Amino acid sequence: MPELPEVETMRRGVLDAAGRRVESVTVPPCACRPIAMSPSQRQLDRRMKGRRIDGIDRRGKRLVIVLDNQDRLVIEPRMTGILLVADPPDVDHLRLQMDLSGAGVNRLWFWDRRGLGTVTLYREDEYRTAIDQRLGVDALQISTEQLRQKLSSSRRCIKVALLDQSAVAGIGNLYAAEILFAAGVDPRTRCDRLTGPQWRRIHDQIGLILEDAIRHEGSTLSDGTYRNALNDPGGYQNCHRVYDRAGQACPRCRDGEIRRIVQAQRSTFFCPRCQRRSGLHSTLREDFHSHDRSASLR
DNA sequence: CATATGTCCTGAGAGC
DNA sequence: TGCTCTCAGGACATAT
């Protein structure tokens, strides 16, 4: 389920494509129905052929390929989409192929088992209105004050609000759970009841957890779907402390059990002992956070 | 306006 | 063994 760390890993994995020219954009023969693509493959090919790739950016969970005429190809991996320069896990779910000029990395593939991903080519002004203005500040760029300003008047639970891409872009279900655990905040806390220190801890942990996950090249869950551009699994799944660990002992307090609840039709995992609604926290909790920080930087 | 719910999709795993 | 059912959660459309 690519979230910010996985998409950032994809971006880094295909950076070699920058500076090359697009030779063709095609849909490989595959058994699946086509993914949502706009405009059509024929139009994509026509508009991109011969263009130089000026940059490969990321905004939240979206990968943005910037062409020399300032058109932008936006790839949304959603649940199972990945970008590859190596051979794909199978050829049955290849959705798009981009052939590039030059030696070395001269082919990019978008592979997506479930096919919920999308590929869209925007002109510069379309990109501004459809992507730039609709998405919140990237989770790695947002300040504590910006985060607070966006969410502190909301009545939603903090876990649900963190998934709102128009507030802050890049956090999904998995990292929301890990961030709130590290921040010691109960995921059911309403945004408008969070204290200043809680907002600060949440903001700190957004940066620390996401950066740590990027260092580990993202999370490859038990279904093995997520891969980096070389088709290698990530490593951050071994660092998860609450996600998909219901019933296991809490890695911090050891006594409590990780609980699974459902919020907005999505699983939330947390430790009821370590994650409190109250803004007050004990000395023990401070120890937890300083320990947490050094662990994250390891 | 803010917030909540339904929908798409495929394959893994559970239960019988 | 093979069938049916449920679930995973990204983003958006529609409903409240």
Assign the CATH topology of the largest domain: Helicase, Ruva Protein, domain 3
Computed over alpha carbons, the radius of gyration is 20 Å
Helices, by number, come to 8
- Binned strand content: 15-25%
How many domains is the backbone divided into?
2
Largest beta sheet: strand ordering: 2-9-5-4-3
CATH class of the largest domain: Mainly Alpha
Give the strand tally: 13
CATH architectural group of the largest domain: Orthogonal Bundle
pLDDT under 50 segments (min length 5)?
282-298
Provide mean pLDDT, rounded: 91
User: Order of SSEs, N→C?
Assistant: HEEHEEEEEEEHEHHEHHEEH
Global outline = globular
Domain Formamidopyrimidine-DNA glycosylase catalytic: 2-117
GO molecular function, one term: zinc ion binding
EC number: 3.2.2.23, 4.2.99.18
Subunit structure: Monomer.
Task: Give structural notes.
The structure is a single chain. With 298 residues, this protein is an alpha+beta fold. The chain has 2 domains: 4-132, MutM-like, N-terminal (N-terminal domain of MutM-like DNA repair proteins, Alpha-Beta Barrel), CATH 3.20.190.10; 138-297, Helicase, Ruva Protein, domain 3. The chain has 8 helices and 13 strands. Helix 1 (4-13) runs parallel beside helix 7 (196-215) and helix 6 packs across helix 7 (196-215). Mean pLDDT is 91; it is low at 282-298. The structure holds a DNA duplex (16 and 16 nucleotides).
In short:
It comes from Crateriforma conspicua. One of its GO terms (biological process) is base-excision repair. The protein has 298 residues and is α+β, with helices and mostly antiparallel strands.
